[in-house]
Design brief:
- By secondary structure, the protein is of the alpha/beta class.
- The chain has 7 helices and 9 strands.
- The protein has a single domain (5-183), classed as Spore Coat Polysaccharide Biosynthesis Protein SpsA, Chain A, CATH 3.90.550.10.
- The strands form 3 sheets. Strands 5, 6, 7, 8 and 9 form a 5-stranded mixed β-sheet that branches. A two-stranded antiparallel ribbon has the order 1-2. A two-stranded parallel ribbon has the order 3-4.
């Protein structure tokens, strides 16, 4: 993209600021893991350095779990349509699980999910084995019976078209969604 995704402009401000401000409407504590401390500009948003920089999403989630020591909603900074009420619902309905993950169009959405401290050993084990793929972590958790799925019928009560799962990974995706957003 040429610029860190967190700093791309979305509706007149950096994408990270936009997403963090949205999260503040539903969560009393918003923490950004990794990146640069200077990127975190909204008042009341905390920055925590990634415990394992460059080790991917699983390591960032592990950092969040170690830091917070409580159930938390996790989303990526490149998800401008994050659905905060659905995120809160995921956390509130995660009892008995180590992770509560939406499944949309057959795909797991671990970056719009509720993660609990009980997930940490699964992530730690995976990282120790050199396995950084989130689907492997979820696979282990499902085998252990600690993964709860949020199915499409539930998701549709919050977000009928699944836009909350859109993340902007390529310049083409960025431009397409930015243009669509500006037309609204």
């Amino acid at each position: 993209m040429g610029t860190p995704k967190a700093l791309l402009q979305w509706q007149g401000r950096p994408l990270l600021e936009y997403v963090a401000t949205r999260l503040q409407t539903a969560f009393s504590q918003v923490v950004v893991i990794g990146g640069e401390a200077a990127w975190v500009t909204p008042p009341g948003v905390e920055w925590v350095p990634d415990e394992q920089p460059g080790a991917g999403v699983a390591a960032a989630i592990l950092t969040a779990l170690h830091h917070l020591q409580q159930p938390c909603f996790v989303c990526a900074c490149d998800m401008p349509f994050v659905h905060v009420e659905f995120g809160r619902w995921l956390v509130e309905n995660a009892a008995g699980a180590a992770v509560h993950v939406p499944r949309w169009l057959g795909q797991a959405q671990p970056l719009h999910a509720a993660w609990l401290p009980e997930a940490a050993p699964f992530i730690e084990s995976s990282l120790r084995e050199g396995e950084y793929a989130m689907w492997r972590v979820l696979q282990q958790m499902e085998k252990a019976g600690t993964l709860r799925w949020a199915q499409e019928e539930v998701i549709c009560r919050f977000d009928a078209d699944g836009q909350c799962f859109v993340n902007l990974n390529t310049p083409q995706e960025w431009q397409r969604w930015k243009t669509a957003s500006e037309r609204r």
